[in-house]
Amino acid sequence: MHQFTRKAVRKAAGALLLLVLVMVFSGCAQISRVIDRLKPTDPVPAEVVYYDTVEFYSFGNLMTVTCYGDLCSEACMAVREEFFRLDGVFSAEEQDAVLTVLNTDGEAVLDEDTAAAFNAAIRLYWSTEGAFDITLRPVRQVWGFDTGEYRVADALEVKEAAALVGSNRVAFDLVSRTAQLDPGQSVDLSGLAFGTVCDRLPALLAPYGVQSAMIISGQKVYAYGSKPDGEDWRVGISVGEQAAATESDYLGVLSVSDRAVFTADPYEEYFIDGTTGDMIHHLLDPKTGYPAESGLGSVTVVASSGAMAEGLASALFVMGQEKAVAYWQANRSLFDMVLVTDEGQVFVTGPLASRFETESAVTVIN
Under a CB-based contact definition with an 8 Å cutoff, are residues 52 and 208 in contact? Predict the structure, then answer.
């Protein structure tokens, strides 16, 4: 029997890999506040801007939501409630959830929220030639990534689970919202659930007059609008096992407004096989059932759509550098990306190059 050493999953606020540099203000006193370690140097606007921040757990991760404006507290609560609501709607564990019914019975009529996310997932499956696949759930289960009770799966288990993977075998009709699975298949929407909620921010925040907001969850950042002073948000990217402690520890800093910045990194969740010493990470290859060995160390996707950024980050990691570059070249109007190879080489797509500050040598992809 294999033994393994459990490694901590980096989901706590103190272990965020993404640094957000942002000026915030409270009451009548203008103050600067550090969000995660780095003192900001941006000039303080003359006017006072009210803000509020809430932290809570949803989709199994810590969420930090910051909103700016006179009704910032009410806006934060609205975002939190939407996370809680969709966490229940998209659950594949709760007894009455539609995905639980689908996974148990093999067929179901989906609610509107689930059908929309399901449709986005199926489209992404075909677009990435199967690198993103919501039917990967049986594979995640044999490794223990669905519950966090990690185990080293044997070859037969992986082979049998991988044989069930394939969204091409899912019958789905968006108009009737009906879905049907092949026997033994099961699905979950965790690969784009966070981004799906982020995409609802414009509608959620409009009633409160909020034009600047930030959502952070681990290595996922959604920057809504620009900073209160009109400048871009500055989002730091770190790769590797250790969270960055100072600016010099970061791979680089991206300047963005109204963009999702999502990073897929094997160190986000993994464990060590105590027998072989191998790292078993959460970015599983749907075609093999094993952790992807694509030659990439991390992938950061920058897009206007949170769901797209979240799904593509993991898919491009699985695809590897050559296919990821080809995919971007065919879809360059939809997103940009930063690729870091296992050897530490950094590649940045052309439109993003001027917005990416780094001391590393960078190759620009055109």
Answer: no
